[in-house]
């Protein structure tokens, strides 16, 4: 086995061990749930303001929050829109509002 293959094997083994650790499973769960909480926050703020929501009005966890917000936009659940009051502003899409309404009905 070459040195490169041994290094790749060791790397893969470390990754597998770390990913299976309880804290990493908790992080994976949080990464799945956080965007839903953020979308609910965006929709509630959108309704309260009756318009777009500047990013500074959202409670975003460092890095994860901004990444989740980009994921909401990339997945079509939020739109980045122009606003005279913020560098970045967002609004939930109709699909997102419909999905959140379904969640609320089923809860």
Task: Describe what this molecule looks like in 3D.
By secondary structure, this protein is mainly alpha-helical. The protein has one domain: Arc Repressor Mutant, subunit A (Orthogonal Bundle). The protein is 64% helix and 9% strand. The protein is built from four helices and three strands. The protein has a three-stranded antiparallel β-sheet with strand order 1-3-2. The mean pLDDT is 94.
Distance between the ends: 55 Å
**What is the CATH architecture term?**
Orthogonal Bundle
Helix content: 55-70%
Q: How many H/I helices?
A: 4
Question: Taking all residues together, what is the mean pLDDT?
Answer: 94
Low-confidence stretches: none
The total tally of domains equals 1
The gyration radius over C-alpha positions equals 19 Å
Number of strands: 3
Going across the major beta sheet, what is the strand order?
1-3-2
In percent, how much strand structure appears in the residues? Answer: 5-15%
Shape: elongated
Main pleated-sheet profile: 3 strands, antiparallel
At the fold tier of CATH, the topology name is: Arc Repressor Mutant, subunit A
SSE order: HHEHEEH
Structure class: mainly alpha
The CATH class designation is Mainly Alpha
What labels describe this entry?
single chain; 107 residues; mainly alpha; Arc Repressor Mutant, subunit A; 4 helices; 64% helix
Give the SSE map.
Layout (H helix, E strand, L loop, with lengths): L2 H17 L2 H28 L3 E2 L9 H11 L3 E4 L7 E4 L1 H13 L1
Antiparallel strand pairs: 1-3, 2-3
Helix pairs in contact: 2-3
